[in-house]
Design brief:
Strand content: 25-35%
Order of helices and strands: EHHEHHEHEEEEEHEHEEEEEEEEEHHH
Helix content: 25-40%
Shape: globular
Structural class: alpha/beta
Number of domains: 2
CATH class of the largest domain: Alpha Beta
CATH architecture of the largest domain: 4-Layer Sandwich
């Protein structure tokens, strides 16, 4: 188990932490970073102001082979990973569905690079015991404990003989780890890679609401989720913020096995989450919307209106039996239409018109 030092008695009155969604310095982002381009110049001033930046590292470095059970697979270079330092990241979560894309060699290349950059990681490790260890960060005299889990519904697709281990999401284990950690730190934050049942959706799955309640009741002071590639709605449970998914911080089209997995338009929208913790237990939370504009991550305040619309829809959906089932039904049928529209550069209204003409057997 990780060694935990005594808590500091010299604490500031408040601490603010900033969280980044899925970080993938792969494909086009890797090319641009290696060429010396700064794709994040607009958001860096906000990160510099934060007391600590935490990110979900969705990509690991390349090795000499890949996990052929996983599709799509992604990877990056050690040179591109240097950008984490420029983003002021102090901790990355590695319990993801891509942590084993480049097998043990790729994982070790990554963790060795993180050590060189003085960046901690949590959630996955060569040692199965260490994979379950929390990460402890001392920030302005506050001791923050982080636990990190990946849900199987995100499809890590691991071979039976995988030599790297991860912290799989099992609710009772999540609760147990939080309860053990709680007395040893000032605040506990759960970093969850989950939501595979609502990929590309703006609302979480109904079961996640119940899971979040249990996790907060166990002692978590915040839940920060990733994986869905969309910025999802949030909850406040017992005064504690629950962000189900922050969306992508940076993600490029994936080139894998001769095919291209195009980033959806919804996957170009994300949020920088800022949590401010106070001594009295209060937690303030604020989101700065971001957008992937031709591989430049820019601030886009106008997205706040869209995020608020989905938040209102979420609050209303919670009030009606069957509201979530209706949303899931629509997600499976409507979201692919928008994706088809994006890929083929045709409006949704034109798609509907073409469908109507086909039904009416009109030319």
């Amino acid at each position: 188990m990780a060694t935990i030092e005594p808590m500091s008695t010299n604490k500031s009155t408040s601490v603010n932490l900033t969280f980044l969604g899925d970080i993938a310095f792969s494909d086009r982002f890797q090319e641009l970073l290696e060429a010396g381009e700064d794709q994040f110049v607009e958001v860096k001033p906000l990160l510099e102001k934060s007391d600590c930046v935490i990110g979900n590292l969705e990509v690991v470095a390349f090795g000499s082979a890949q996990n052929m059970l996983k599709r799509p697979r992604i990877g990056t270079s050690l040179k591109a990973l240097n950008e984490l330092k420029n983003l002021h990241v102090k901790l990355v979560s590695l319990a993801t569905n891509h942590f084993y894309d480049n097998l043990e060699e790729g994982f070790l290349n990554t963790t060795n690079k993180l050590k060189e950059l003085d960046i901690k990681h949590v959630g996955s490790d060569i040692d199965p015991i260490k994979a379950k260890d929390p990460a402890i960060l001392d920030v302005k005299g506050w001791r923050f404990g982080f636990v990190n889990f990946v849900h199987t519904d995100t499809h890590p697709s691991l071979p039976d003989d995988a030599s790297v281990h991860t912290n799989f999401f099992e609710l009772e284990e999540v609760v147990s780890q939080i309860k053990r950690l709680k007395p040893k730190v000032d605040r506990v934050i759960a970093l969850l890679h989950w939501g595979g049942k609502t990929d590309y959706g703006y609302l979480p799955h109904k079961e996640q609401l119940k899971q979040a309640k249990r996790i907060i009741e166990a002692g978590a002071d915040a839940i920060v989720g990733c994986h869905t590639h969309t910025f999802q709605t949030h909850d406040v449970i017992n005064g504690k913020p629950v962000y189900y998914s922050l969306g992508n911080f940076c993600f490029s089209d994936i080139h894998c096995d001769g095919g291209v997995y195009t980033v959806r338009e919804s996957g170009k929208k994300g949020g920088l989450l800022n949590l401010t913790f106070f001594e009295n237990g209060k937690v303030n939370h604020k989101v700065n919307p971001i957008y992937n504009q031709n591989h430049k991550i820019v601030l886009k305040p106008t997205l706040a209106k869209e995020f608020r619309w989905w938040q209102t829809y979420f609050e209303v959906t919670k009030l009606f039996p069957g509201g979530f089932a209706l949303y899931y039904w629509g997600l499976k049928r409507i979201e692919p239409i928008f994706y088809y529209s994006q890929l083929n550069k045709i409006s949704v209204s034109q798609i509907a018109l073409n469908k109507l003409k086909k039904l009416l057997k009109l030319k």
